[in-house]
Amino acid sequence: MKKKLLITGAAGKVGWSIARKLRETGRYDIVATDLEEDAERDIASLDVTNAEDVRRLAEGVDTILHIGWAEDDEDFLGKVLPVNVTGAYHIYEAARENGVRRVVFASSNHATGFYRAGENVEPEDPYRPDSFYGLSKCYIELLGRLYADKHGISSFNVRIGNYPGNRPPASRRALKIWISERDLASLFACCVEADPKIDFLSLYGTSANSDNYYDIAYLKDLIGYEPQDDAAELQAEAERLYGGLKDDEQPLQGGGFTNR
Predict the structure, then answer these.
(1) How deeply is 3 buried, as exposed, middle or buried, from its count of CB atoms within 10 A (0-12, 13-18, 19+)?
(2) For a disulfide at 62, which of 3, 31, 94, 150, Cβ 3.0-4.6 Å?
(3) Which pLDDT tens digit goes with each residue over 78-130?
């Protein structure tokens, strides 16, 4: 029997890549959702700030991939808080009420953006968000910790690096934290299929980049993630495509977010 997956934010760049690639495997029954319905791509309407709608769509679901988000760093109260934080609360409450086995949350490298570039950062290290957006991701990761401990919902946090779609990395910083389209889909599939005994896990989501900010080698043994791509191998192609790479490296891992 196929696992039923509910995907939020499926019309966005990250969400659509994951939904499309997982559908192509034929292994899952996928309910893709976003704020606006898209019949052509089989995306249903779901406002994550509407608790009843979230609860209804979570019925019979094995795993929720919570990708929906708001990045507006200048409107924390009006956009980031209700969409990111309140929306995630509704996701976890719906999971609890419907017996959903696991929630895989699309977190961000900006949860730890104030660590210095070149500094080894483990997922268990203290949060150092570089923005209100990053702060909201930290809160939601902790929300997952609470629901794992208190309600037994297996909670995974994938701190995505840089994902430009099916294009090569466009900047010097992106070379370090880029993730390819196929590696992104593979990583989320690995999170869906990971050992049910893993009750809580935070991890950095990148490809096997030569000069990676993060150590991800352990994920092969832990959840079976074996990234196939390396941003360094695409550098020459990227420089031709973009007319050179943007020089956006900063002393801190969060890049430009630390200056806003």
Answers:
(1) middle
(2) 3
(3) 888 888 999 999 999 999 999 999 999 999 999 999 999 989 999 999 999 99
Q: Give the pLDDT confidence of 33-43 residue by residue, as tens digits.
A: 999 999 999 99
Residue 26 neighbours by CB under 8 Å, 6+ apart: none
Note if 225 is an active site residue: no
Q: Which residue in 28, 92, 115, 133 is the catalytic one?
A: 133
Domain boundaries, the chain: 3-259
CATH fold group of domain 3-259: Rossmann fold (3.40.50)
Q: Helix/strand/coil (H, E, C) string of the chain?
A: CCEEEEEECCCCHHHHHHHHHHHHHCCEEEEEEECCCEHHHCEEECCCCCHHHHHHHCCCCCEEEECCCCCCCCCHHHHHHHHHHHHHHHHHHHHHHHCCCEEEEEEEHHHHCCCECCCCCCCCCCCCCCCHHHHHHHHHHHHHHHHHHHHCCEEEEEEECECCCCCCCCEHHHHHHECCHHHHHHHHHHHHHCCCCCCEEEEEECCCCCCCCCCCCCHHHHHCCCCCCCHHHHHHHHHHHHCCCECCCCCECCHHHHHC
Q: pLDDT tens digits, residue range 52-76? A: 999 999 999 999 999 998 877 668 8
> pLDDT band for position 47 (50/70/90)?
very high
